[in-house]
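Quick one: structure tokens for this chain, please?
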Amino acid sequence: MAAPLDLDQLQTFIAIADTGSFTKAADDVHRTQSAVSMQMRRLEERVGKILFEKEGRTNRLTDDGERLLVYARRLIQLNRETLAAFDDAQLEGHVRIGTPDDYADRFLPEIMARFGRSNPLVELSVVCEPSPNLDALIRRGALDIALVTQNDEVRHSEVVRREPLLWVSSANHSTHEAEVLPMAFGRPGCIWRQAACDVLDRMGRDYRILFTSWSATVVAAAVLSGLALSILPECALRPGMRVLGEADGFGRLPDCQIGIMRGHTGHTAIVEALARHIAESLDNISVPTPDDAGSFDFAAFTAARGRRLRPSHVLPGW
């Protein structure tokens, strides 16, 4: 029977992958650099693959290293959950989390599953509101933690994920070919709306805003019905949408930054545990990439954060 993988080696491996440096990883895992190098040599011997290659001063994962990273994160998380299940001093209490509805739809299932398995005695209350409202609730002490869209001008959050903003239209309509583009956006003050308008103005494209709502469901409905175009982050893409790119005459948009805001409510231990689960969940979630035929290969899911969809592909059902 093959010997099991060493969890300490996997933890060090993850630290190197996250920092891109043996030296920084050594600080993170409280080992000397020579001990870290020895761990990685033993891990490579154990799996029989080269896991790192030098790229300047950075240690970049090989393809085999990228494959192992997915399993390593799952093994470390399972180890934490196992220990938590037998911990007599488990966290107990109530925590209030806020998130916009588009993030809730994509991210909450993974976050709640991870956190619930590790902390079965903690009750979660979830509030779905747009980021400006969540910001206000955090400041009033009405929320313990919130997942928000980072806006450098009005709020500070710990950024845990970056995704491209994408122009989207209906796969079954030619709305994007209209002389005056019909648009569906969030309400005035939405930074995505402002970013889209700035790009359209620079492009010299005529447009009019037909639908305005804080609800991602409403905006998606306007797009899928062929009544309007919009912009969405990768996480909010839905079956039946088409991603438009520069080849379609649409300029590049800034990335969407997703961050964590913590309230000052005194639930520090629970909030920090939930924040860690959020960061780990968002780091592992990825969006399927269409192949050249326009269909999705579920086996090709990647754990790499911020992977971009190729433009001008139709999203079939998944």
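The longest helix spans residues 63-85.
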